[in-house]
Design a protein that fits this description.
CATH superfamily of chain A: Cupredoxins -  blue copper proteins
Distance between the termini of chain A: 68 Å
Strand content of chain B: under 5%
CATH class of chain A: Mainly Beta
Strand order of the largest sheet of chain B: 2-1-3
Mean pLDDT of chain A: 94
Largest interface: A-B, 94 and 119 residues
Order of helices and strands of chain A: HEHEEEEEEEEEEE
CATH topology of chain A: Immunoglobulin-like
Oligomer: heterodimer
Number of strands of chain A: 12
Number of helices of chain B: 15
Low-confidence stretches of chain A: none
Number of strands of chain B: 4
Strand order of the largest sheet of chain A: 2-3-6-12-11-8-9
Structural class of chain B: mainly alpha
Low-confidence stretches of chain B: 523-530
Largest sheet of chain A: 7 strands, mixed
Number of helices of chain A: 2
Largest sheet of chain B: 3 strands, antiparallel
């Protein structure tokens, strides 16, 4: 019953190492280092890295900026339920603002395939989760912080934004939309 | 005070209990099991609602149930049981009196009052904020107050544990170093102090915000510090259940650690690096730098993962060495085939170890990789992962340990030994399946903490793929099987305590019997083939590594196909 008894050698740090353990420690350490450097490697060569560009913001400030872009680049209106959503088509490389709030994503955004845009995200109230489906990209949306993510769609189609951070009783109705032409 | 303490020597295990400590362990363990029962009943509601074909509870009841399930299981069941384990690893294993039993009872009372307060707040329906209670969403003040009281109680219990170590040292009840299992428990307690301090730093201002004294707690600061509490508390569990694996290997096989140096060194790596992992929850957040994310999420350079991989080898390795010494030397795996698979203490521990490594460990490292996190953040992949670590890893280990403690600590003969034999298989294997299908659904993007994957009542629509519906259905079925397994555990534990045949308590004495010095051991290298003491375990470890490498790179391939992000 040795693991529940004091070690027989007083100097336990001199207890010999078995070759099974020694070999495994070396292999495991190499694997750990590979995984560590893989993250750095992907920052240099990979195409999917989350931007860290962030600004402090308020609901009023962000809404004003979002409204300005909506006013300038709205191409049409779409009606869902009893609500009209502007469809915003920003120019390549342009800024586009997405508001997460109880309980929808506003406005609808239209992008073009293989072009890059600066997508600004924030929440007006609680935490929300930006979950772009079916491509499956998930980003936390935190109130008070404007997160600027550069996105380059690589497929065309209709994409849905599901909220995947619990935000109250209507959480399951919180959806948004991005079109890619 | 020493003269007033009475010690009992268990005739079945030879373990010596301070009778005061024994009552404390019993009280903490019983309350833990009560919370497991409550959490298990709540699990029925969660599972039957997320099973799309059943979709049982209304949205508000579902979110309330989910909040209570998370807190009762992850915090109350586990930490009450852990306090019992801490007292066992100090006072029982070191054969000394417990320090300040009255203060230990105070800790117990605080934890009990706190846990009841938080539960009442949740069930009143004003605190359906999930376990994480992210600000600015607010719960009732009693919700936070209960958690704070509970945390203070748990902190006091940790200090009783540290005090008991001092008593043992001063009374010279053991010679040399503490046993490895106690060493692991010390690791758990050190991490617990860090965890509870983080919890206090963030929950106290949030409580003050809920009563209107503090105006605002920053949402991002809250997330960062809350996770230093939320994730580290899971690291207490890892240190605790790994200590239990070592203990069970010793109890069931008389296994010696292959090398004290390696196993203790791995525990030291936990103390140094494990707490960095709160970053796992913040990888998809704004406002944190890439460098911070990479260094923290990888426990500096995956040093805590290294430690877990070491434990994952040395525990079965120690069993293999012990079995080979008994003559089970044929081939690579006779030692494993001839293991006592019918003994729930062993089978529970081994199912826990394999599931924790293969399901919990590999998935945890994958999702903790900075970029890969984007394909699973807040999906049901996350609960799929942590049910593999906390349910298969921690809960199943606690169950296995309970089967050992029923005759030893409760002094009762176990009722329904036949049921006990199958319980770890039913519970463990259905949880394996549960975790797999949940992670499958998460890989398809299905959200966690979500009442309705059909989005009923939403203006827009989104249709999940049919495979996602199928997997969430399987999640429901597997969960129900696991709940039956959990119910059997509670029936056996509570039933044995109430109706089990009373067993001989053993000799009482008012003097502790010190642990006799252990005779020097023969070096383990003299067993096994090719200078390898545990070749079978090494092969198992290589299988694990291959699975790990493949799964890791498959997910990079998956990530490389999503939209470009920079």
């Amino acid at each position: 019953m040795s693991a529940i008894l004091p070690p027989s050698e007083r100097l336990w740090w001199k207890h010999p190492l078995d070759r099974v353990e020694g070999a495994w420690i070396v292999i495991a350490l190499i694997w750990c280092l590979i995984m560590f450097f893989m993250m750095i490697f992907w920052h240099i060569y990979g195409k999917q890295n989350l931007s860290t560009e962030t600004y402090r913001t308020t609901a009023a400030q962000f809404s004003a900026k979002a409204q300005a872009v909506v006013d300038k680049y709205t191409v049409r209106q779409e009606k869902y339920g009893d609500k009209e959503y502007p469809v915003v088509h920003p120019p390549e490389g342009g800024d586009v603002y997405l508001i997460g709030r109880l309980w929808d994503w506003w406005p609808i955004i239209e992008l073009e395939k293989d072009k890059t845009y600066r997508l600004h995200l924030t929440s007006m109230d609680y935490n929300h989760g930006f979950s772009l489906q079916p491509t499956n990209i998930n980003i936390q949306v935190v109130p008070g912080y404007e997160h600027v993510v550069k996105v380059t769609p690589n497929q065309s189609g209709t994409f849905s934004i599901v909220c995947n951070e619990y935000c109250g009783i209507g959480h399951h109705t919180m959806l948004g939309r991005i079109y890619v032409k | 005070m020493t003269t007033a303490t009475i010690y009992r020597t268990c005739p079945r295990s030879g373990l010596q209990f301070d009778t005061q400590a024994e009552k404390l362990m019993l009280a903490n363990a019983v309350v833990a099991v009560v919370f497991l029962l409550i959490g298990g009943i709540l699990a029925i509601g969660v599972a039957l609602t997320r099973w799309p074909a059943v979709h049982w509870l209304a949205a508000d009841t579902f979110y309330m149930t989910l909040t209570a399930h998370g807190i009762d299981m992850l915090i109350f069941w586990i930490i009450f049981f852990e306090v019992a384990v801490l007292y066992f690893c100090s006072s029982t294993l070191l054969r000394c009196r417990i320090a300040t039993p009255k203060i230990a009872w105070l800790a117990f009372a605080l934890m009990l009052i706190g846990s009841v307060t938080t539960n009442v707040a949740i069930f009143k329906g004003e605190s359906s904020v999930m376990m994480t209670s992210y600000v600015p969403m607010m719960a009732a003040p009693a919700f936070y107050l209960g958690l704070i009281l509970f945390a203070v109680g748990a902190l006091v219990a940790c200090f009783v544990f540290f005090g008991t170590l001092v008593v043992a040292k001063r009374d010279k009840t053991y010679q040399g170093s503490v046993p490895l299992v106690t060493f692991g428990a010390i690791t758990a307690a050190i991490i617990a102090v860090f965890t509870i301090a983080s919890g206090a730093i963030i929950l106290i201002p949030t409580f003050l915000m809920s009563v209107g004294i503090v105006k605002e707690v920053d949402p991002l600061v809250y997330r960062t510090i809350w996770w230093a509490f939320g994730h580290s508390s899971q690291q207490i569990n890892v240190a605790a259940h790994i200590s239990i694996w070592y203990a069970i290997a010793a109890i069931a096989f008389g296994a010696k650690p292959m090398s004290e140096r390696v196993s203790r060194g791995a525990f030291l790596l936990y103390i140094l690096f494990l707490q960095l992992a709160s970053a796992h929850h913040l990888l998809a957040d704004p406002g944190l730098s890439t460098g911070w994310k990479v260094v923290n999420t990888s426990y500096f350079m995956y040093f805590a993962v290294l430690a877990s991989m070491i434990h994952g080898l040395t525990i079965p390795g120690a069993i293999e060495v012990a079995q080979r010494q008994k003559g089970y030397t044929k081939g690579l795996f006779e030692w494993l085939r001839k293991a006592p698979w019918g003994n729930p203490v062993f089978s529970g521990m081994f199912i826990s170890l394999i599931g924790f490594g293969f399901l919990g460990g590999i998935s945890g490292v994958m999702m903790g990789t900075e970029q890969l996190n984007m394909i699973i953040h807040n999906t049901v992949y996350v609960p799929g992962h942590f049910h593999a670590t906390v349910v298969v890893g921690t809960t199943l280990s606690f169950m296995a340990l309970t089967y050992f403690l029923i005759p030893v600590l409760f002094k009762r003969e176990m009722i329904a030994p036949g049921l006990a034999k199958i319980q770890p298989y039913l519970f463990g294997l259905s949880m394996y399946f549960f975790c797999l299908v949940m992670m499958g659904a998460g890989t398809l993007g299905v959200s966690r903490r979500h009442w309705d994957m059909a989005f009923s009542g939403a203006a827009m629509t989104y249709e999940w793929p049919g495979a996602a519906y199928l997997m969430m259905g399987l999640v429901g079925i597997a969960a129900m099987a696991a709940i039956v397994g959990g119910a059997i555990y509670i029936y056996i534990t509570v039933g044995s305590l109430l109706w089990g045949k009373k067993l001989d308590a053993g000799k009482l004495s008012n003097q502790p019997t010190p642990i006799p010095p252990t005779p020097a051991s023969v070096a383990v290298q003299s067993y096994g083939s090719a200078g390898f003491a545990a070749p079978g375990t090494f092969v198992l470890a290589m299988v694990f590594l291959v699975a790990f490498v493949l799964y890791y790179f498959i997910n990079w391939k998956y990530l490389s196909q999503v939209w470009g992000l920079s």
